[in-house]
Ribulose-phosphate 3-epimerase
Amino acid sequence: MSRRSHLARLRQQSPLILPSVLSCDYSDMRGEVQKLEAAGVQALHLDVMDGNFVPNLTYGMPIVAAFRKLTELPLDVHLMIENPGRYVRQFYEAGADIITIHEEAAGDETARILQEIKELGAGAGVAINPDIPVERVMPFLEIADLILIMSVNAGFGGQKFNPVALEKLEALRKAGPKDLLLEVDGGVNLETVQACTEAGADLLVIGSAIFNQSDYSAAIDELYRTAHVST
Ligand code: DX5
Ligand code: ZN
């Protein structure tokens, strides 16, 4: 079964919280994944950074492959790397279900790389940082499965939410096809999560607001209760 079949399920269940495992305990990945599964999470968000596109360095294919062995949850892989087209096949082979590239890094190659990701059989996403106008992703609304709106500058967990993301989500919700997944990433917590869902976000990537808590399940439940769209 194509990994692309996860997309419809994620859409159906949205809004969904995707833990960003950037801040998990890497000495106990198995335990961390078990706790997240027990908390009922539906997908994991993995942050790949190259120390070049962003001023931070995390991990590459081997860690994605390790998560693949530990869980059947869809893996949403956020590539914060230069020249992403060079690596999409390898991340697919490592087990990524959704692969998101940055428009700033892919430039003129963005559409071609999104197409390649889809042909491989994964969900294709395109991301922009807070200082990039939303117009830059408008050409990809039909070809991308997912648009990732960064609400902090890509690179580090624990930064403050930038509300410019909300206007972009609203604009994309209006302009994009119904089944386009909108994801928001950075500084999403109890103070900001409801504004994100109200602006139209389907996938809420959350790192420190989960991993800074001792009980992930309680943290996620509270975030869901707060995310509930009131209108
Ligand atoms: C930042 C990453 C995020 C990060 C989110 O560049 O893309 O996924 O882990 O962490 P918090 O929720 O702490 O902002
Ligand atoms: Zn991310």
About this structure: The first helix runs from residue 5 to 13. DSSP finds ten helices and eight strands in the chain. The domain at 5-227 is CATH 3.20.20.70 (TIM Barrel). The mean pLDDT is 97.
